[in-house]
Amino acid sequence: MSGRGADLSRLSLNTATTKRWTLKQAVDGAARAGLPAVGLWRDRVAEAGLSAAARVVRDAGLRISSLCRGGFLTAPGPDGRRAALDDNRAAIDEAATLGTAELVLVAGGLPYGSHDLAGARLRVAELLAELAPYAAQRKVRLALEPLHPMYCADRAVISTLGQALDLAAPFDPRVVGVVVDTFHVWWDPDLAAQIARAGVEGRLACYQVSDWLLPIAADALLSRGMMGDGQIDFTAIGRSVTDAGYPGDVEVEIFNADIWASDGEDVVSRMIDRYLDLVLPNLLPDDRGGARGRAPWPV
User: Does 297 have pLDDT greater than 80?
Assistant: First the structure.
């Protein structure tokens, strides 16, 4: 594998990228490749069992960069609200048991038949306020992930990093942060300023990378690609994230039917090559001297 001997100290394999692998296969594959971290999805954790999943990662000597996902906070009515709170408290407990501080939240879309976008966003804010104290108690940060606007109706009424930061603003940055996922935010003309804002506020909780492919797949969820295969400028976004002081892992999270059908070892090898070529150089010191990023970071 071409990445052997290179600096992989911040690279994390998100289990969504190797969808056909079980949690143990993903952990073992990451460890064989010399990666220090994995990002876990709750479905893979559930298949393995929570305690077993924690043990598998621990025994492999890896860390968990994040747990995906909580959220979907927009359901109306008492029953919908109660179900959302229960599921998210369970996700917080899972993150705490697994030993990761970051739980990625996707806001949720419009309820079926609804046109009330403002009301859906208000429910996200209300339920976030109910969940934050529990997350703080469990020492888990709720990492709000804005999704591309094409998912606004069905998955996330929060579309920009600025919206996510506004939602996070009332809370301690150790309790509510934000995710920068290149696939979802690359198009935003205000992205650099909002990443800088997130750095100043100490809210950069997770950096996820994948590319934007054209044409959009029939299932729009599967339009992500390997870095370098699409339109995203990883140099500009990477420099903004680094300038903002982000010290954490970089997760490769790809939803793509062709990648899922490929051999997992080949996917990980290609992922490492693209990370080294396109992502890592923007996480390193530059010619201005010293490391980028002097923003405060919560401990």
Answer: no
The predicted-structure confidence for 223-250, as pLDDT tens digits, reads as follows 999 999 999 999 999 999 999 999 999 9
**Is residue 296 predicted with pLDDT exceeding 50?**
no
200 three-state secondary structure: helix
Q: What are phi and psi of 232, to 5 degrees?
A: -80, 140
pLDDT for 284: 80
Q: Which two tokens stand for residue 188?
A: 């935003």
For 11-283, CATH gives: 3.20.20.150
End-to-end, the C-alpha distance of the chain in Å comes to 35
CA 113 from chain center: how many Å?
29
Instruction: Please give the Cα distance from 60 to 48 (Å, whole number).
Output: 15
Say if residues 38 and 62 touch (Cβ distance below 8 Å).
yes
Per-residue tokens: 125:
């804010």
Alpha-carbon span 194 to 127, nearest angstrom: 24
Q: Are strands 204-209 and 176-181 parallel, antiparallel or unpaired?
A: parallel
Q: How far apart are CA 86 and CA 71, in angstroms?
A: 11
pTM over 0.90: yes
